[in-house]
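Give me the fold.
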Amino acid sequence: MTELGVEYGTALFELALENDAKEEYMDSLEEIDSIFRENPQYSDFLASPGIPMGERIMALDTAFGSGYPEDILSFLKLLTEKGRIYVLRPAVEQYRKLYKASDHISDVTVASAVPLTEEQKSKLAARLEAMTGGQIQLHCVIDEKLLGGLTITTEDGIIDGSLKRRLREIKDVMTG
């Protein structure tokens, strides 16, 4: 994450707290980030010095003028006017990080050799929430190299309960 992205994301989060709108801003930023990810030419357009600034600002008003908080629109305009629209993604990442920390939400990635059922995901999320005392956003991925078991990756580290690790430990004991 860029230093500018951290600064902009932090400033926007502080503004959201002042306005008691952190969830509303988060929802808007998620939508806008998704739009920019799906259409990378938007950033190019907004950064283009060949297009008059008035046209770029008008495009922002047209695209985001209704349905989004005024502060979010002003934020997009500021990034455009300062020639820093490419800082949007890191700023959103920083905002998301601060938002989750303030609500005690942790991202957890679970890798398994086979897809987990919805029931397994629910039980795992409930157990992790009990362990951490906070909310868990579970992201499941398939890693066929694991052979069996799970690896759980959190912000604090990795819990490796994979069959691959257990076999490696047995091998180390036998050759040790």
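The first helix runs from residue 3 to 18.
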